[in-house]
Amino acid sequence: MGCHQQVVPSVTTESANTTFIAPGSKARSMNLDSSRDLYDRALSVLPGGVNSPVRASYPYPAFIQRGDGAHVIDADGNRYIDYVAGYGPVLLGHSLPDRVIAAIQSQVSDGPMYGAPTEVEVELAEFITRHVPSIEMVRFVNSGTEATTAAVRLARGYTGRDKVVIMQGGYHGAQESTLIEGDQHEAAPSSPGVPAEFAANTIPVPFNDEAAVEAVFEDHGSEIAAVLPGEFAKRLVISRLGHDAGRAHRAAPGQPGHRHAPAGISRDASRTHPGARRTADLR
């Protein structure tokens, strides 16, 4: 894959030579022999050959060997532009500045982890609250699922309400209460293994549909504990409605608001709608 082209597969085959088409160019073949071999090995020890469904692709994914700046290179030496960025955390690319590497090495030399409070976590929390006015306190977690689980539980405990509003087609964590699809009239689990009872307190609404969100609040406003909008575009109307209904809202798991702007999403939201900052911003 050329380092300056966005390419997509044109066909899928059972061979290790997959054909790709770059916009404005002719189809060409890419060697993925090593990725195919690694995938075959992975199938015997990893369910589906991957550690996350989002990494699965048919007939098999490219196995990445290393990163280089804004690119990743697979086991066969093919180079790709990295639009994924580790699903968020790789903010500086794959060639870290020397001072970042030095800071990591310095911290590791003091011990990889302690399982106890440390000064560095206090410093990080102070940094976040100093730069993001809407965040008064921080709870660090390991994943977006843990963040949304804690946020929903906190919102339910604080409000005494049970219902949660989520955006259709968005990712709101892998807990049962957000693995729900449908609409406000008929919701059901999105996959086997999720008891149907969880759908009773989860209300999916179409993304970017203000009328649908308003209808949900008209019908269930006094029962809604939290809204998980997932994207910045929904925060303005939700902030207004939620402030009126007395519920909390939360940003997308794995995509903290400070990646939108240094002071967080709420900075820009409050410029458009002043009420956005008055509601709880649970991350």
Task: Reconstruct the topology from this structure.
Blueprint: E1 8-9, E2 17-21, E3 28-31, H1 33-43, E4 64-68, E5 71-74, E6 79-81, H2 98-109, H3 119-131, H4 144-159, E7 163-167, E8 180-182, E9 187-189, E10 202-205, H5 210-220, E11 224-228, H6 235-245, E12 248-249, H7 265-272
Parallel strand pairs: 7-10, 7-11, 11-12
Antiparallel strand pairs: 1-2, 2-3, 4-5, 5-6, 8-9
Helix pairs in contact: 5-6
Describe this structure in words.
The longest helix is centred in the middle third of the chain and has 16 residues, at 144-159. A hairpin with a 4-residue loop joins strand 5 (71-74) and strand 6 (79-81). 29% of the residues lie in helices and 16% in strands. The chain has two domains: 8-87, Aspartate Aminotransferase, domain 1 (Alpha-Beta Complex), CATH 3.90.1150.10; 119-277, Type I PLP-dependent aspartate aminotransferase-like (Major domain) (Aspartate Aminotransferase, domain 2). The chain has seven helices and twelve strands. The two termini are 37 Å apart. It has helices at residues 33-43, 98-109, 119-131, 144-159, 210-220, 235-245, 265-272, and strands spanning 8-9, 17-21, 28-31, 64-68, 71-74, 79-81, 163-167, 180-182, 187-189, 202-205, 224-228, 248-249. The strands form four sheets. Strands 10-7-11-12 form a four-stranded parallel β-sheet. It is an alpha/beta fold and 283 residues long. The radius of gyration is 22 Å and the shape is globular. Helix 5 (210-220) packs parallel to helix 6 (235-245). This is Glutamate-1-semialdehyde 2,1-aminomutase.
